[in-house]
Amino acid sequence: MTHCYMTFTILKRRLAHYLRTPIHNLVSPQTDVSLLCWVRSVRKHKDIIFVDLSDGLSSHRLQAVIHASLWDPKKAPISAGCSVRISGDLVQSPGQNQQLELVTKELDLVGECDAAKYPFRPRKTYNIDLERNFQHLRPRMEKYAAVHRVRNRLTQAAHAYFQELDFCQIQTPILTTNDCEGAGETFLVNHIDDLKPTSPSPPTPPSSLEKVAPKSPAPPPTYFPSQCHLTVSSQLHLEALVHSISRVYTIQSAFRAENALSRKHLCEFTMLEVELVTESVDTIVSITEELIKRMWLSVREMEDFKTLGEDWRDAVDTALAKTFVRISYDDAVKELQGKQLTHPLTWGCDFKVEHENLLLEFSQGRPLVITHFPAKIKPFYMATKDGEHGRLAECFDLLLPVGGEVVGGSMREMDRDKLLESIQQASIKGLEWYVELREFGSVPHGGFGLGVDRLLQYFTNTHNIKETVPFPRWQKHCQA
After folding, report:
1. Residue 179 confidence (pLDDT)
2. Angle of the 452-460 helix axis to the 310-320 helix axis, nearest 10
């Protein structure tokens, strides 16, 4: 153990030698500081050039003071967006906007950035559609970099939370034969050869000395022996694992070919999905609540909120300070039936955006957990119980401001015959393996799926989910 620790320490020192100190860790005067970073803005004043530097690792910037004699005016100009190799001494700054500044000794332009062609300029705002047209360049804008750093911290917090509770992270497949939600909104996967038109070649008459080669069997119609999709959820595979490891989770992409162009939908999105052995949906709700509060505490002090909006941070603090509001589907319907609705609501209907917004007004902006929906509007895998108006699913949805429905969870049906009946009623094929899980040592279990992008949308008060991911994919849009 001692030898391993010493080896790790040596490697860490070696890495520190090669990896330059992040700008946010430069907190005291020192000599011979060397940086490889980007120029965010340039201000020229007589013989002095003031440059704001960033390495993108935080929202912190470092002002560099460059004497004009260090730069040959015949060379390409130093402009916003270019990258530089710069070294000098870090000293106390006489300016009011920063404590330290870099007095430059050496400067090299590494990567030019033609200001006339570069689409984004410092301190300017742009139409959101223009920004989306440059998905490969917009991460350089400070607001997008800030969102991605918050996302990174969120997922780190989720991993830490589940590891503390002895959950095991599982890598579930992207390619699957299952449609977990049973809605048919899946992307079909084909091998490229399956898409090529086939034209039979004319037969070549054999010579008298040649043998006719036997015909090879026709290739299968697809690369896989059965129809294959991009996964819409990891849940079913996690259920297979939870029958061996009693607490499991995954964080990965999911794909749904929804005909939805709203500000809350993407075709490719990130899901945090959890399965655990438990006998109560209340336990699952409590884990969800504690997880979200832990994730918020992990990011709320980040400097990036100076870019994203500190006032909104106070609103989230207030919303998460108390226990989440819980209400049954029956009571939610009664609450809505007393309102003036554009979309009338009767028992057994799912909630629309209008209904969700009114229910969030009822909860006064606090997270709202709605439990026990009618079984007929929920997927086949949910456990059910009798209700006043019909069968109810042992489930819940979590609504948040801005993001809408962020979490959905339930107890899973443990009884083989009931599950098989639900699958047959939904006319879903290919789930024999899933039913078989109930035949060998099945156990009460449940779980939930959390939309990471929507949670990030709420935490950062980002109006449209397309601005929470680096390369958003939605209907008729797939760039880069």
Report:
1. 80
2. 120
Q: How many residues would you count in the chain? A: 480
Report how far residue 275's alpha carbon sits from residue 237's, in angstroms, rounded to the nearest whole number.
Answer: 10
pLDDT beyond 80 at 250 = yes
Helix, strand, coil percentages for the chain (3-state, nearest 5): 30, 25, 45
Domains of the chain and any CATH numbers: 19-124 (2.40.50.140), 145-192+222-467 (3.30.930.10)
Q: Which helix or strand (DSSP H or E) is residue 362 part of? A: helix 353-362
pLDDT in tens, 376-396: 999 999 999 998 888 999 999
CA distances from 168 to 238, 441, 465 (A): 11, 20, 29
Are 82 and 112 within 8 A, CB to CB?
yes
Q: Are 369 and 407 in contact (CB under 8 A)?
A: no
DSSP 334: H
| C-alpha–C-alpha distance, residues 71 and 51, integer Å | 13
The answer to whether residues 379 and 369 touch, using CB atoms and an 8 Å cutoff, is no
Pairing of strands 368-371, 325-328: parallel
pTM value is 0.89
**What's the distance, CA 312 to chain centroid?**
20
Candidates 13, 56, 16; CA nearest to 37 is 56
Residue 14 has pLDDT above 80, yes or no: no
SS3 54: strand
Inter-CA distances, 446 with 49, 236, 243, 285, 433, Å: 61, 11, 11, 11, 18
